[in-house]
């Protein structure tokens, strides 16, 4: 992949930044476009430390929104890209219920704008950040890629609609090579503790919340539901270390670079193992050496009891498999949290 030129939208965010590191290490030239809505420019310096000055020289960062057609066109005129990895998008479920139009405009509108321009400038290899959310209320686990798709909220619908748009695009023009990666629950951080997840406001997701309780930013974790039909009654999910997830993108990019009949393929990126909320709490307590106070609470509307995937197709066709464990994720997330208890920008609340 030496010299491969890659456009990474949302490349300073949580999953994006963890993917930019191996891309640069593999010798790619990387251009990040990020509107900085959910990211910090400090990530650039951290990436520099991780990849060294020489590789860092192959990184360009543009503060640019995917909805900004003019700015994006200017960039595409100037730089020729071999492929695009598209992470940019809003991702808060609750907010999407309150502001559906903003989600549709930004996620779907922005993606269509981006695809139009990529097509115009001849960059037709595309990797999309999809999500396990497109399985809706899966009737069965493990979840396989051919299972029926549905969405239970506007955020999920943006992922589902973009998948459909990409399937249509692939049918309309065989030159496109598209891979949809359905992430299960991304957790952990780079083992260096230099980059990690830094959500705005009160975290919606479990691991960032547990992390903030561990550093003293929140009093206790509410466990949403303790009467599910699972090992200990709490919800069970397929937590995937973000470093493994990042490697999944490298594997997908290699496929796009080496095969010409990809069309539009979809892969689950998960471990195939379910872990409950209480198991996560226990693993984090071991990693940080502190007690995480919890209180049992009602079920969160829209939650399912258990969701985990079969990652077999990604193993067969991408040669990718998750290597890191929940213990690794908790250890690495604690290193990140203890070095950056208030995220990249320091104390702001
Ligand atoms: C959530 C989103 C999903 C999105 C994914 C991204 C919902 C309903 N779903 O999935 O669309 O793609 O994040 O990672 O928001 N929990 C607690 N206490 C908390 C937070 C969570 O007990 O404070 C529990 C939940 O009930 C669930 C588990 O932890 O059983 C994981 O929750 P979360 O991290 O929010 O992920 P998902 O619900 O799987």
Description:
- The structure is a single chain.
- The protein is α/β, with parallel strands linked by helices.
- It has a domain at 5-188 and 240-270: 3-Layer(aba) Sandwich (Rossmann fold).
- It has helices spanning 14-25, 42-56, 69-78, 93-98, 100-120, 154-172, 206-214, 242-258, 277-288, 312-318, 326-339; strands spanning 5-9, 29-34, 59-63, 83-86, 125-131, 177-183, 185-187, 221-224, 236-237, 239-241, 264-269, 275-276, 294-297, 306-307.
- The strands form four sheets. Strands 3-2-1-4-5-6-11 form a seven-stranded parallel sheet, with helices on both faces. A three-stranded mixed sheet has the order 12-9-14.
- Helix 2 links the parallel strand 2 (29-34) and strand 3 (59-63).
- Helix 3 runs parallel beside helix 5 (100-120).
- The mean pLDDT is 97.
- It catalyses: UDP-alpha-D-glucose = UDP-alpha-D-galactose.
- Belongs to the NAD(P)-dependent epimerase/dehydratase family.
- Keywords: Carbohydrate metabolism, Isomerase, NAD.
- Its EC number is 5.1.3.-.
Tags for this model:
349 residues; globular; Rossmann fold; 3-stranded mixed sheet; binds uridine-diphosphate-N-acetylglucosamine; alpha/beta
Bound molecules: uridine-diphosphate-N-acetylglucosamine
CA(first)-CA(last) distance: 43 Å
Radius of gyration: 19 Å
Query: Which oligomeric state applies?
Result: single chain
Approximate strand percentage: 15-25%
In the CATH hierarchy, the third-tier topology of the domain at 5-188 and 240-270 is known as: Rossmann fold
Going by CATH, the homologous superfamily of the domain at 5-188 and 240-270 would be: NAD(P)-binding Rossmann-like Domain
Main sheet record: 7 strands, parallel
SS summary, helix count: 11
Share of helix among residues?
40-55%
Broad CATH class of the domain at 5-188 and 240-270? Alpha Beta
Architecture (CATH level 2) name of the domain at 5-188 and 240-270: 3-Layer(aba) Sandwich
């Amino acid at each position: 992949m030496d010299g491969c030129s890659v456009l990474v939208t949302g490349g300073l965010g949580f999953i994006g930044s963890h993917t930019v590191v191996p891309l640069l290490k593999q010798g790619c030239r990387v251009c990040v476009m990020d509107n900085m809505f959910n990211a910090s420019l400090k990530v650039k310096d951290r990436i520099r430390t991780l990849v060294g000055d020489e590789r860092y020289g192959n990184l360009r960062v543009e503060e640019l929104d995917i909805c900004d057609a003019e700015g994006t066109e200017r960039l595409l005129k100037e730089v020729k890209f071999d492929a695009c990895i598209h992470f940019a998008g809003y991702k808060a479920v609750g907010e999407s219920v309150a502001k559906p139009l903003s989600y549709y405009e930004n996620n779907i509108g922005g993606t269509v704008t981006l695809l139009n321009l990529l097509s115009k400038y001849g960059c037709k290899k595309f990797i999309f950040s999809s999500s396990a959310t497109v399985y809706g209320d899966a009737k069965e686990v493990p979840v396989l890629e051919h299972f029926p798709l549905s969405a239970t909220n506007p955020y999920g619908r943006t992922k589902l609609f973009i998948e459909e748009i990409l399937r249509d695009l692939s049918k309309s023009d065989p030159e496109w090579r598209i891979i949809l990666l359905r992430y299960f629950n991304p957790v952990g951080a780079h083992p260096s503790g230099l980059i990690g997840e830094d959500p705005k406001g009160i975290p919606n997701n479990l691991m960032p919340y547990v992390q903030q309780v561990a550093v003293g930013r929140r009093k206790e974790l509410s466990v949403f539901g303790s009467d599910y039909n699972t090992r200990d009654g709490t919800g069970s999910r397929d937590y995937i270390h973000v470093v493994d997830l990042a490697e999944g993108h490298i594997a997908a990019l290699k496929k796009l670079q080496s095969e010409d009949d990809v069309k539009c393929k979809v892969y689950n990126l998960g471990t195939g193992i379910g872990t409950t909320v209480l198991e996560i709490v226990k693993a984090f307590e071991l990693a940080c050496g502190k007690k995480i106070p919890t209180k049992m609470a009602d079920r969160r509307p829209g939650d399912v009891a258990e969701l985990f995937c079969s990652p077999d197709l990604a193993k067969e066709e991408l040669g990718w498999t998750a290597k890191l464990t929940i213990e690794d994720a908790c250890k690495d997330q604690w290193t990140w949290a203890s070095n950056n208890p208030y995220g990249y920008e320091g104390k702001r609340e």
